[in-house]
Amino acid sequence: MSISTPGGPERRPTVVSTGKKPAAGRPAAVAKPGGGKSAGAPRQTSGGKGPRKPITPVKVSQGRSWGPIALFVAVGVLAVSIIGYGAYAAFQGSKSWEQRAADIDGIVDFRDKDPKLVQGGQHQQGAIKYDVLPPVAGPHNPAWQNCMGDVYDAPIANEHAVHSLEHGTVWITYRPDLPADQVSKLRSKTQGVEKVMLSPFEGLDKPISLQAWGYQLKVDNADDSRIDEFIKTLRVNASVEGPNANCGQGITATGTAPRDNVPQQQQQPTQ
Amino acid sequence: MTAPATTDTPPVEPSVTGSGDRRPAGRYGLLALAAAVVVGLLLGYAGGLLTPTLTRPGDSSAEAGFARDMTTHHAQAVEMGLIAFDRGTDPEVRQIGGDIATGQQGEIGTMQTWLRSWGLDPTGDQPRMAWMPDGTGKIENGLMPGMATPEEMAKLRVAQGRELDVLFLQMMIKHHLGGIHMIQGILDAGGDDDVLAVAQIMKNTQQTDLTNLQNALKRLGG
């Protein structure tokens, strides 16, 4: 790093006479070469011509070795790009399921709309009136509807279904007049998938309505890609009780009247 | 004489320029060193931050596929096991039903925790069993190997007494055989050490279960 440009020693005297005082921090490096030369005196006058001086440093800077600088710049650019990519990847990967749910076009988020409804559901016997239909949250029957990929061919009780939602189920409902080929597409999204269940629902304003705890999405067609998006984003994730909530041992019967305190063996098979 | 004069006026200019030709060397050297240290630290930090993201199993990895599909497979075993535990007649059937239900539910928790720690959803984009060679072809009506059909489950739910015991044993034997096949799939595919270790334990457990289930079935004359 030491500079051995021809102009260096000549100018050093000026450094000695002037620089010594202000830069008391590092006198040694400056003082040594300057001390040996007595050519400082004549230079001082020229040194007095302040305005000219700024030209010389440019020369010196040319003496700087560009190699290390280029290396540092290269490493810096590399570092910035790696860090930048990392930040980008982290941002993309860190999108929570809630954020991704909000990105689904047409989804209704009752967690946002009616936080009280979505807090959790107390158990309640008998018929329960739900303001949102199909229901998306709220009090519910102590027994849940079996939600082990069950396909129900007749309407089921809201009171049991809401309990299934609480356990992380995506409940797919369709208007009874939905064409059979559309229903079979919904069936294939359900069968064999625990925490998904399918049933017809009377009085829907759209052909298909999907429910998860606190969320609803209505679509016109079983081919709508938002159905898979809804399931991927909300199945289990929307559970109030986490991924270990049970979906077996539930009510497997259909019928819209809730069943209170029914031991499992008394249920009639409906599938 | 002249010195006082020069030191009086030039100090401002020469000291700036004078220090400009030697001190920059030291100053820039120091700056460069500091910059290098900072860049090095940032690189190390970014590397440490990125490495787990880049090396952990991705959305279409065999590990993620196994965790999701085996969760589903296990969930049905839990449902069957609890039916046997709740309503079985034979003490061993009830005991083994409860054992399978609690054991596999625990494993579901482990697998779901993997997915969460990998930043993945419990539901994948890939079809079922796509992580196994020839896997998707083994799906029937959405059911993975060994899984009971809705009709079989409905039958088990209403069965009573010895009929239920025998039915449960038969269904669970089939279920375990399918499960072991899938576990072998992840053991063959390899990957995350913890996944492989847990998969090996699952396989050992289900193989031991299988012997006991088969012996119990013989004993009950099923």
UniProtKB/TrEMBL annotation, chain A:
The keyword Repeat does not apply. This is DUF3105 domain-containing protein. Keywords: Membrane, Transmembrane, Transmembrane helix. The keyword Cytoplasm does not apply. It comes from Micromonospora antibiotica. Residues 246-255 have a biased composition (Polar residues). Residues 1-60, 242-271 are annotated as: Disordered. Residues 19-32 have a biased composition (Low complexity).
From TrEMBL, chain B:
The chain crosses the membrane at residues 28-50. The keyword Transmembrane applies. PROSITE patterns: ASP_PROT_RETROV. It holds the Pfam family DUF305. InterPro entries: DUF305_CopM-like, Ferritin-like, Peptidase_A2_cat. Keywords: Membrane, Transmembrane, Transmembrane helix. The keyword Flavoprotein does not apply. Residues 1-23 are annotated as: Disordered. Residues 183-222 form the Peptidase A2 domain. It comes from the Bacteria. This is DUF305 domain-containing protein. The lineage of its organism: Bacteria, Bacillati, Actinomycetota, Actinomycetes, Micromonosporales.
